Amino acid sequence: MNIVVTGSIAYDYLMSFPGRFVEHLLPDQLHHISVSFLVDEMRRQRGGCAANIAYTLALLGERPRLMGTVGQDFGAYRSWLEAQGVDTSLTHDELDLFTASFFVNTDQDGNQIASFYTGAMTRARNLSFHDPRIGPVDLVVISPNDPEAMVKYAAECQALGLPYLYDPSQQIIRLSGDDLRAGLEGCALLVVNQYEFEMLHEKTGLSAEEIRAAPQQACVITLGPEGAHIWADGELHAIPPVPPTRLDEPTGVGDAFRAGLIKGLALGLDWGIAGRMGALAATYVLELPGPQSHRYTWDQFVARFRTQFDSFAFTTAFSAPLR
To answer: Which terminal CB of the chain, N or C, has fewer other CB atoms within 10 Å?
Structure first.
């Protein structure tokens, strides 16, 4: 399947503070805060919604094309993605900027202080699906990105007749109601979590029924530990979760779900199976730190799927070749 994945490409800087933020904040001085926290752990990991989705698609045997803008520090990340099977030829280097970066400090109570540097991502609006290098496309993924880029890509996909999965998630806050309606009403698939679905309802003024009916193929709502709901062909498909063997942290879980779902559709499988593939792909991420730490072969994925859903009798569901 020829898939172009757009969205954020970023580094995540994760820090741990061995104390409680609240003990260092003076309630009567919150109008001019100046504090510094000495952290005892920091790790940098590869992230960004588009890169996360593309990585899991590559694990599942696809050769997704990653489309976005990156900075002067992207070289090693690019090489790593290419080695995993992700085509980065549609990424554009902005050598006067750094790659988008997320900085978060977490205290022992789980409270977080975070900042996001948009960096090179702000120039994603300069890329276009009219670029002749892109050629034929079976599916475009529009995931969180520079808001202007998201609006532009949706309009271009509609004009060019390119089917797209609309995943506004974190950027629902930044996008206007009109922009969200335009992106929603032209999409093939909508994938959001329950909270984001409610935000769409509030910002667009559309009813829940209107939102679910807007995508041409399906509306997918992820429900965290409760699985997911897929509305397609006038039916509701309830997707159960896959219990993790261990719990780590949830960053990138939703991105992996989207990749698993897309792989199922690429194989021509029905919504029940494709949704369960998304659920399993998500659980792999939940079991390890970071959104790109998981690794498995196609055979390992299929074996675990069959073990988890043995009673569902999917014995021939994965008879298609890997690619």
So the answer is: C
Catalytic residue of the set 255, 270, 299, 310: 255
CA–CA distance, 151 with 2 (Å, rounded to integer): 22
Strands 228-232 and 65-71: unpaired
pLDDT, one tens digit per residue, over 75-102 is 999 999 999 999 999 999 999 999 999 8
- Structural domains in the chain, CATH included, are 3-16+38-312 (3.40.1190.20)
Residue 255 is a catalytic residue? yes
CA distances to 53, 155, 306 from 167, in Å: 11, 15, 28
Token pair in block for residue 212: 């679910």
Tens digit of each residue's pLDDT (9 = 90 or more) over 30-65: 888 889 999 998 989 999 999 999 999 999 999 999
CA atoms within 13 A on the CB side of 222: 27
Indicate whether 216 pLDDT > 80: yes
Place of tokens 């072969």: 297
